[in-house]
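Deliverable D4.2, example record:
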Amino acid sequence: MRLIQVPPGLLVSSGLLVALTVAVNLGGPVALVDHAGAVLTVEHSSWRKVRVAQIVSSVGDPHHLIPLTFVAALGVAVLRRSGLRGALIVATVGIACAISLIMKDLLPSPRPDIGFTNVLHAYPSTHTTATATLFGAIAVTAFARRKVQDLALVLAALGGLAVGLARVVVQAHWPSDIVGGLLLGGVAVFALRWFCDTTGRPISPADPRTGTRSRSAPRRPLPVAAGRPDGSSRRWSWVTRRTRPDAPSGTGQGGRGHTP
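Output generated by the structure prediction step:
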């Protein structure tokens, strides 16, 4: 029986998300850190900073995020010539946002500013979750090389963090809400990467265990001629385009007839 190998990134992000969710609902140190972070943000904010934060935060608004998701999915599908990759972007972002909304309903948390419509829908930040998941899904599906993909994932995390910090500046979320949104987005992206790694590689008949095609494996088998009555055989070479003997013939001097 083959064991399922879960990537460490998926395990770590899932564990941290569960631990933070429990800590946020229990209050205590997390509430103190959130309050200190909100006070520090308000003390160092200005109308220019708030305006810039509103612009950055608008990236995660549904009327901006939904078109961006479909445009990114279409671009990746055309670039990689795979409609499945584009569909995976839309599905990953949609599932991550749905989980975020479910967590908001099951675990109500007050916002820093009561002027927002959904006062008890703070944890986790759906804006942060959606943007981090979208940028991460683009990084996973658009790039094939692992090093380039890792660099793109770092940039995706920074983009999600920027949107999350903007949400803190406009007093829509606590710092813990941003961390929770980043972790939830990380879970979605790592799950997508795991899915692509386990199902997206063609299985080669030459090496079915690893799931990768061996470069040394021949593309087509070399035909072997039937055995001769004298016990020798011939093998056709695609390189030399001629027959060559594999065993000495009845003359006793190799494959060709020898005349003394």
